[in-house]
Request: fold
Amino acid sequence: MKNHDKNISLAKAFLLCKSEQDVENFLLDLCTPSEIKDLKERWLVCQTLYYEELSYRQIHQKLGVSLTTIGRVARFLKDEKNFGYENILNKLGEN
Reply:
């Protein structure tokens, strides 16, 4: 029988994934299709903002993502002190 008293944080659960497929399967179980779509959109917007010099309107036209989503991602990429997006983008650049 599994130990149900163990609470593992979401972040730690992601760290336990050994492959992209593990992460994908975990996300499919964890999130609704709409939530996964939103996460994928935000990540694509993040990469576009970081690597391309496009206006919000150009990104909206290119990706079909709302201006609100673009603005939210831009705020977290540029102004917030979490550095979550930037940290991962930098790690991707190191590979």
About this structure: Residues 33-94 form one domain. The longest helix spans residues 33-51.
